[in-house]
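pls ignore typos typing on phone
manganese (II) ion + seq
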Amino acid sequence: MSARTASSNGAATGTALEPVLSALREHQHFVMCAHEKPDGDVLGSGFALGLALRALGKTVHYFLDDEVPRNLRFLPDAELTQRSFDSVDARALYIFLDMSDQSRAGEPLAWVPRERVIDIDHHLGNQRFGAWNYVIESAAATGVLVLDLITALGLPITSSIATCLLTAIISDTGCFMYSNADPHTLRLAAALVNAGADKDRIVEQLYQTRSFSGQKILGRVLDDFVLTGDGICYSSVSQALLEEFGATHEDLEDVVGALRAVDHCEVAALLKESPDRSYRLSLRSRGRVNVMEVAKSLGGGGHFRAAGATLEGPLPAALERMLDAVRAEMAAERRSK
Ligand SMILES: [Mn+2]
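k done
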């Protein structure tokens, strides 16, 4: 695909892009860094950029203090992730992808000093925590920014790279269902399919395959959910339920989406109990309530329509905090209209 069809918003590139390109050209060793609970955008972006840099003769490591989620193991290079810094050169630059601040990468990457950090991201409120920052908040996915970089480096978009980047875009647009799947993003996706991205495999893995236990738990969640009069649709998953089916939080991917789909739901909330008895809260919005603000008020973060936070148990207290926070944001938005 040509640089013209592949490149992102021309207006947004320019100054921010050039220093990052120079850093990528001038350094030899790179470590790709993902946020905790890695998703298709952070991993697809990392593998795509890693593949491109390796094609330039650079040394690339993929640091991941997690397993690659089952549904993303088909990605090229997914088998190369490592949990240690073994054999990483002391001069390496660390590329933090898809996170608003360095703490999202977790404890194992907290030591990396700013002068060795490249920050590539699209989250609102990104802290520009790198010595180099390529941040475009209007981009639908970090993968779009990685596509900019690879194209600007003059490298070909191979079918492997295209599959990684299309995974990033499909993942962050909810398979093109969210409003960020705008004409520009759809054109980029088309160009990636044209370059050989395996769209059918990506969709099959991300949206049409669920674990047995995940599907069983979805049934329970749908049986138990509550829809309040003011449009909050919520449910919870206990450790006991996870244990009953031998499931983990990974099996609950997009269960909250099934709550959001309920008619009259404005905000969907799923509370997932962790082994330490705290609760991981996932929030989804129909598009009128900004759940990023809700999550921030609870110490978390995310996007307008999809966000999350961690709440202390027990469950009734966590539910009350969640409901209070959602209602406070609904009230604030009513006042500002
Ligand atoms: Mn993202």
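Residues 1-14 have pLDDT under 50 and may be disordered. The two ends are 45 Å apart (CA to CA). more later
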